[in-house]
Specification:
Methylamine Dehydrogenase, Chain H; mainly beta; 3 helices; about 230 residues; disordered N terminus
């Protein structure tokens, strides 16, 4: 199960005072994790390893499941037209369109086999960021999955051992989220810029730049996902 710390890291799910189950709609039970895209759509993974999409404006559900690649490790919905679904155990990334129809499936090991890929995130120009947890470096792959950026050992650059749980590109920067050490910020060429100390306020500020205004309309409680009316 994706850790609740990692889930909270960018505050894709926000509960707040005044939110009650009485004035909300139950989206689903057995929810493991969830995210919002910039259009206000809700994406959530259930414990049967199914990715679901809920569109509040038309109250429509869409599903995607591919059990042969194992457990879904993460999803990136920053681009709703090109959703990234990552399977860490198999080093497989699937790209889905806005209807959760598979566009492409990629075995990262065919293009990079030096270490262990623990994170994957969408990048501009239809690229892909990956994090190698063994060699402790970031790589940016182009649309044809050629390596465009490769950092050195981040242990040598940051002078500390990190264990990032989330990675996301936004506004010409890449954010590598470590709930213990903070957020490490890089430019799109893999150059280290700064570290933001861990703080829920900072995480919220980063995410609120692209999350819809109704991001506070979600409540995650006891593995059940609700949407405020």
């Amino acid at each position: 199960m994706i850790s609740r710390i990692a889930l909270f890291c960018f505050l894709f799910l926000i509960s707040f005072k005044g939110f009650s189950q009485e004035d909300s709609v139950k989206i689903s039970s057995n929810v493991v994790s969830a995210k919002l895209d910039r259009l206000g759509n809700v994406y959530f993974i259930t414990n049967n390893n199914t990715l679901n999409k809920y569109e509040p404006t038309i109250k429509r559900y869409t599903k995607f499941a591919d059990l042969k690649n194992g457990k879904i490790s993460s999803i990136d919905v920053t681009n709703p037209l090109r959703i990234v679904v990552f399977y860490e155990d198999q080093a497989v990334v699937k790209f889905l369109d806005i209807n959760l129809t598979e566009i492409n499936s990629v075995d990262i090991r065919k293009y990079y086999s030096d270490g262990w890929i623990s994170l994957a995130a969408s990048s501009n120009n239809n690229g892909l960021w990956i994090y190698d947890n063994v060699n402790r470096k970031l790589l940016k792959l182009g649309e044809q999955l050629n390596t465009q950026v490769s950092t050195g050992d981040l242990y040598l650059i940051l002078s500390k051992k990190i264990s990032p749980q989330l990675m996301i590109e936004y506004s010409d920067e890449l954010y590598l989220c470590d709930s213990t050490n903070g957020i490490f910020v890089f430019d799109l060429f893999g150059g280290y810029k700064k570290t933001i100390p861990y703080s829920t306020l900072i995480f919220n500020q980063i995410s609120s730049s692209y999350l819809p205004k109704n991001s506070s309309h979600l409540l995650f409680k006891d593995d059940v996902l609700y949407y405020k009316k």
